Amino acid sequence: MIHRLEPNDYAKIRTLLSPENVNDLTIQAIINGTNRGAIFVDDVEQPRTALVDQTGVSACLSCCVHERDHEISVETYEEADMNKGFATLACAAYLEHCMEHGLTPHWTTLETNEESVRLGTKLGFERKGKCKILEF
């Protein structure tokens, strides 16, 4: 039988994490209560198996790729979750992945997108220049 753990019991599954999941920021954020999600286990008292439902708050991904160059796309889905650091956490995990795999991340945004400019600066990106954008 499968049981949903109460959030204050999420830490019980830490010993079940595989080596590749021990440092997974999304799973750790769910366990710590900073990201939405649910954890289901076979035994509430002594779990031997766990399923982590990763209901995303923010996502950061490569929206355009050319060889080892990756353009960043980041989004926080609900307005109520904005300005709480979720996009920063998602981007930090993405940038860590890039560094571990020899990828070069790029941050491009409209200068009128103040939130994106602020986040890019916070993450260490520097402005290189301007380019014209054509919309149709």
UniProtKB/TrEMBL annotation:
SUPFAM superfamilies: Acyl-CoA N-acyltransferases (Nat)
Pfam families in alphabetical order: GNAT_acetyltran (PF12746)
PANTHER family named among the record's database cross-references: FR47-LIKE DOMAIN-CONTAINING PROTEIN-RELATED, PTHR31143
Protein name as it appears in the record: GNAT family N-acetyltransferase
Species of provenance: Brevibacillus brevis (strain 47 / JCM 6285 / NBRC 100599)
Lineage of the species this protein comes from: Bacteria, Bacillati, Bacillota, Bacilli, Bacillales
